[in-house]
Design goal:
Layout (H helix, E strand, L loop, with lengths): L2 E2 L5 E4 L11 H11 L5 H8 L16 H16 L3 E5 L4 H15 L4 E5 L12 H10 L3 E7 L6 H9 L3 E6 L12 E4 L5 H15 L12 H10 L7 H13 L5 H10 L8 H18 L3 H8 L3 H34 L7 E6 L6 H12 L3 E6 L3 E7 L6 H6 L5 E6 L3 E7 L3 H15 L8 E4 L1 E2 L7 H8 L13 E14 L5 E8 L2 E7 L14 E13 L2 E13 L1
Parallel strand pairs: 2-13, 3-4, 3-5, 5-6, 6-7, 8-9, 14-15, 17-19
Antiparallel strand pairs: 1-2, 9-10, 10-12, 11-12, 15-16, 15-18, 16-17, 18-19
C-alpha cells in the first residue's frame, strides 16, 4: 500500500534492512551509493574520490580526441593567417561560461577573438547565418566561427555560413538530430555541459600552445562548475569531478566580477556549494540573457577592472530582481489557463507577447505545481516561440520530435526543450501534442514521488553520520541529498516560523533522542500537529550554526500522522 504524506507525494523507499541486519556507517554508505546506481568497486572509488578534471581523457566524457586535435589545428591555422575568430555562444549560464572559458583560452594565446552572444528576443537560440553575415561585414578579416553550447542541429545555418567562406567548428552537448551539420569539425557529447565541451577544447588548445605568464590565463574550473551545475547536469561520473573541483576553485576565485557578485548577493567565498550555485549565482548570470543582454554577464566573469566589476554585479542583481517580479506576475496569469487543462496529461498554454526570456521558468513553475509536462508559448505575429519542461520518465524532446515537421526549429534535452513555430500552426500542434501525450504518458508518471533512501532511528543520527553524508557532496541531479524515514516520532513542540508563518519549526523525540526540525512550506499544516502527536517523517540531515553554536537539525521533506 502506497504511503502518501501531507504533501500529496508518494513515499518510495529505495532500500530496507531486515531485522537481523545491523546498520553501521559503512553499510549506510554502501546503501546510499547503490541507491544512486553506483555498485561496482571502480564506480564507488570514482564517486568517493573523483579524479581532477585535468586527469580525465577526452574519451572519458564521450569526446573524440582526433576531432579536438583537428579543431585545434584549424584554429592555429586561422591564427597564423591573422584572421579573426567569433565565439558564437548561448545566452544561458552554460553558454555564457563556456564562451568565457574559450575566449580566455584564445585571447591569452594571442588570437584575434570576439565573443558573441545572441539577443534572445531578436535572434533566438542558436547560431544564425544572418548574424554571422553582419559580423563578417563589421570584421572583414573574420575567418572562423566556433559555436559554444549550440549548433548541433543548425544544419541550414552552418551550410550558409560555410558558403560565406568561413570555417566552422561546432561544439555542443544538446541532443543530435537525424543528421549533423556539415561543419569543418563537430565536437559533441551529451555527457557533459556546453561549458564542459568548451573547457576540453580550451584545455587541448593550451596543451598545444603553452604561453607562460598570461594576464588572462587560468584553468577555468570556476566557470566550468557554474556551467555544469546551472545546466542541471547529473552530478555523478565526470560531472562530479567538474563540480567538486570547480566548487573548490570558485571558493578561491580571483575573478573580480564573481567576488563582487558574491558581495552583492550576500554570500562568502569559502561557503559556496551547489545550493549557492543553483539559487544565487546562476540566476543572476542567467537573468541578463532572459530580459537584457547576456554579454554583460560574460563581461562580469572576465573583467579585470574593479569598478566595472562592482557596477556589473549590482546591475546583474537588479535585473535578476526584475526577472523574479516578471516571473511571479506571469505565473499568476498562466496558472489560470493551466487549471483549465488539468484533464490532460500535458499543459499547453499560450499568450500574446509573453517575454521569451522567462517562459521557460514559468513552464518549470507549472510542472512544480501541477506535476505534468508544460509547454508555454509566446505568441507573436508570424512566428512564435515556446519553452517546455517535463517530468521524470517522459523524454520531452523525443516526444516533440514526433511533430518536428510543424516546427521552424527544435532543440533540447530529455527534461527541457524549446521550439519556434508558425503562429497559425499553434492550435493544430496543441491538439495533436495533447492527444499524443494523453496516450504516451502513464498515469504513474504524473504522481509526484518522494524518494527515501532508508529508514533509520534517531539514535543513529550523530556527527559520524554527518561526516559520512559529507562524502556525497557536491549534491545535485542524480545525486540528491540523502533522505531518511523515521516512524512514530513524538512531537514535543510545534510552531509557525518565517514570513506569514509559511514554515514550521518542531521539536521531535524518538528512541530517546531529541532534535529540532524545520519544515519549509508546511506552515498551513500546524493545525494537524499537537503536542504528543506521533508522526512518520521523511527528512534530510543538516548542521545549523547559530551564534557560533553548531547542532544537528532535521529538514522535513514530508510527514504524516502515524
Amino acid at each position: 500500500m502506497a504511503i502518501i504524506g501531507v504533501s500529496g507525494k508518494i513515499w518510495e523507499i529505495k532500500s530496507s534492512l531486515d531485522s537481523k541486519s545491523k546498520l553501521d556507517i559503512n553499510r549506510l554508505t554502501t546503501i546510499l551509493l547503490e541507491n544512486r546506481g553506483i555498485k561496482d568497486k571502480k564506480e564507488r572509488e570514482f564517486f568517493l574520490n573523483p579524479p581532477h578534471p585535468f586527469k580525465l581523457k577526452a574519451s572519458d566524457v564521450g569526446l573524440d580526441e582526433e576531432k579536438l586535435e583537428e579543431a585545434v589545428a584549424k584554429i592555429k591555422e586561422v591564427g597564423k593567417k591573422g584572421q579573426s575568430i567569433i565565439i558564437y555562444g548561448d545566452y544561458d549560464a552554460d553558454g555564457i561560461t563556456g564562451s568565457a572559458i574559450l575566449w580566455e583560452a584564445l585571447y591569452s594565446r594571442g588570437f584575434k577573438v570576439l565573443p558573441y552572444l545572441p539577443d534572445r528576443a531578436k535572434e533566438g537560440y542558436g547560431v544564425r547565418a544572418e548574424s554571422v553575415a553582419r559580423l563578417k561585414k563589421k570584421y572583414p578579416d573574420l575567418g572562423m566561427v566556433i559555436t559554444v553550447d549550440n549548433g548541433i542541429v543548425a544544419f541550414d545555418e552552418v551550410k550558409r555560413i560555410k558558403e560565406m567562406g568561413l570555417e566552422v567548428v561546432v561544439s555542443d552537448h544538446h541532443k543530435k538530430g537525424p543528421k549533423i551539420p556539415a561543419a569543418d569539425v563537430v565536437i559533441h557529447t551529451e555527457k557533459i555541459s556546453g561549458a564542459g565541451v568548451s573547457w576540453f577544447l580550451s584545455s587541448f588548445l593550451k596543451k598545444k600552445m603553452e604561453v607562460k605568464n598570461s594576464f588572462y590565463d587560468n584553468d577555468g574550473l570556476d566557470l566550468l562548475a557554474i556551467g555544469t551545475i546551472a545546466d542541471q547536469m547529473p552530478l555523478v561520473g565526470v560531472n562530479r569531478s567538474f563540480a567538486k573541483y570547480g566548487i573548490e576553485a570558485i571558493n578561491n576565485t580571483k575573478r573580480k566580477g564573481l567576488i563582487e557578485l558574491f558581495k552583492e548577493a550576500g554570500i562568502k567565498k569559502g561557503e559556496i556549494g551547489t545550493y549557492e550555485m543553483n539559487y544565487v549565482i546562476a540566476p543572476r548570470i542567467n537573468a541578463m540573457g532572459r530580459i537584457s543582454h547576456a554579454l554583460e554577464s560574460l563581461h562580469l566573469l572576465c573583467t579585470k577592472n574593479q569598478e566595472k566589476a562592482r557596477d556589473l554585479a549590482l546591475h546583474l542583481s537588479r535585473v535578476n530582481q526584475e526577472r523574479q517580479n516578471m516571473v511571479d506576475k506571469l505565473v499568476e496569469e498562466v496558472r489560470i489557463k493551466a487549471t483549465r487543462e488539468l484533464g490532460n496529461k500535458v499543459l499547453v498554454v499560450k499568450g500574446r507577447d509573453y517575454n521569451e526570456g522567462i517562459i521557460g521558468l514559468v513552464a518549470g513553475k507549472l510542472v512544480e505545481e501541477f506535476y505534468r509536462p508544460a509547454v508555454v508559448i509566446s505568441e507573436k505575429k508570424g512566428f512564435s516561440k515556446a519553452s517546455v519542461r517535463s517530468v521524470a520518465g517522459f523524454d520531452i524532446t523525443k516526444g516533440l520530435r514526433e511533430f518536428e515537421s510543424m516546427f521552424e526549429s527544435l532543440g533540447g534535452h530529455s527534461m527541457a526543450a524549446g521550439f519556434s513555430i508558425k503562429t497559425d500552426k499553434i492550435d493544430s500542434f496543441k491538439e495533436k501534442f495533447i492527444r499524443y501525450a494523453n496516450k504516451k504518458i502513464k498515469d504513474s508518471l504524473l504522481q509526484p514521488k518522494l524518494y527515501v533512501d532508508l529508514e533509520v532511528d534517531f539514535d543513529f543520527i550523530d556527527d559520524k553520520l554527518l561526516l559520512a553524508l559529507s562524502l556525497f557532496e557536491p549534491l545535485g541531479i542524480d545525486n540528491p541529498s540523502p533522505i531518511f524515514l523515521s516512524r512514530k516520532v513524538r512531537v514535543l513542540d510545534a510552531k509557525n516560523m518565517g514570513k506569514d508563518g509559511k514554515h514550521l519549526r518542531l521539536v521531535l523525540n524518538h528512541s530517546q533522542r531529541i532534535f529540532e526540525a524545520v519544515a519549509f512550506g508546511f506552515g498551513n499544516s500546524l493545525s494537524r500537529i499537537k503536542r504528543d502527536t506521533f508522526l512518520d517523517i521523511v527528512f534530510g540531515i543538516d548542521k545549523n550554526n547559530w551564534n557560533g553554536i553548531e547542532k544537528i537539525e532535521l529538514r522535513l521533506k514530508d510527514f504524516k500522522i502515524s
